[in-house]
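Q: My hope is that you can spare some time for a protein that puzzles me. Underneath my words sits a plain record pairing an amino acid chain with its backbone structure tokens. Those tokens are not coordinates but codes from a learned vocabulary of shapes. Thank you; the sequence and its tokens follow:
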Amino acid sequence: MSPPKILPGATLHPEPFPLALRAAITASGLPLDRIRHRLQLRGVSISVPTLSHWQSGRRRPERPESLRALAELEQLLSLPPLALRSLLGPPRPRGRKSSVPAQRRDRAITEGTYPT
């Protein structure tokens, strides 16, 4: 039996940030468009697709304006300061420079030899 194929960009373990954000949004009872509107009233411009990407784990806030939006979002959702921001961890590598080339990294992940 061959090991399951892992698609590039897939995460093996759910990350805590999107799970916590989704839970907080669900607990608030507010749809994403209302959250976006309330953030806009606080001077923070963010799109509904961005919020959706954050809570699904497809993207995460890293830029200064995104981190500011996240701080306002914590207040809006009645969360303690840093409740969500503390779950982000270090920024993900960007650009061409990576310690492991993408093809070799993807092969290592599918073969189970990538260090965790």
